[in-house]
Specification:
By secondary structure, this protein is of the alpha/beta class. The chain is built from twelve helices and twelve strands. The strands form four sheets. Strands 8, 9, 10, 11 and 12 form a five-stranded mixed β-sheet that branches. The protein has a three-stranded parallel β-sheet with strand order 3-6-7, with helices on one face. The protein has a two-stranded antiparallel ribbon with strand order 1-2. A hairpin with a 2-residue loop joins strand 8 and strand 9.
Amino acid sequence: MQKFKLTSIIVIVVLVLAACSNASNESGSAEMDDQANNAAQSATVEVTDAHGTVTVPVNPKNVVALDNRTFETLASWGIELAAVPKAVMTADSTYVTDESVQDIGNHAEPNLETIAAVNPELVIVGQRFASYYEDIKELVPNAAVIDLNVDVSKEAASPGENLVNGFKETTLTLGQIFDKNAEAEQLTADLDQAIEKAKSAYNGTDTVMTVIVSGGNIGFSAPHSGRVWGPLYDIVEWAPSLEVDDSSTYDQGDEISVEAIAQSNPDWIFVLDRDAPISGIAEKVPAQDVIDNAPALQNTTAVTEGQIVYAPTDTYLNESIQTFTEIFENIADALAK
């Protein structure tokens, strides 16, 4: 009888110890999960922007993005944004159509108070809003504010080199911030591949004319300058059909006569339709119609040979790494034919 009691006591003690052990393991596991979650929430990364080094939270909440070069990338990664400048974005952007995303307006008259109202952890400045950098920092002193403006005019490097490096640095920086490093590296690899295809497809001798069509007019987009076509002369090493002294980076192109453009007789014409993605322009004239109905151009080699390439219709408002990858791919496909 005593032996039975002793055995029973041992069994009970073992069960109690096991229960305590399980409870301890569960408690420890829960504590480790909490620590992991807290660590994830408090993780930061140091990034270099146009103004220096900035400490930025990883996977920040309440993000405001103002740079047209970032929207497509962030959307493709499923990043939620609290506020954006809807007036200078494409109408079909998921951020524009989402009514919960606040509208900051355009860069001419932005409502910067909207940024403060959403209490952001991160504000991504750049491009059209770069001049508001200091104002925004003062407005949201507790937020990380980064300026990813792509500089195409740095000394000691060509505009083309700066454009490509700017896209890569911006994309990889966003990858670090939003824990999308593999995706960012893939985007930069896709850009490199598209550039190599375009360079390989160009014969090195055909002359190129780049233009911007706006308001039914054809503007001259000068080689090596400007936001879209200019830097591509450096990258693909195009031979320009026409070069003009004192050319500008005006977003509608320089006022060079269509006759002067035609007289240069380009082998290829590359066209940006500035008005295509902009809402509120009455009676838009598609760039292709303008080119097709310009009598002076009809005898040029580019027109007679059908060697005209149009940038994606949303380019003026969506200057993302994806857009430029598409531009280089389109160029490669056209030149290869």
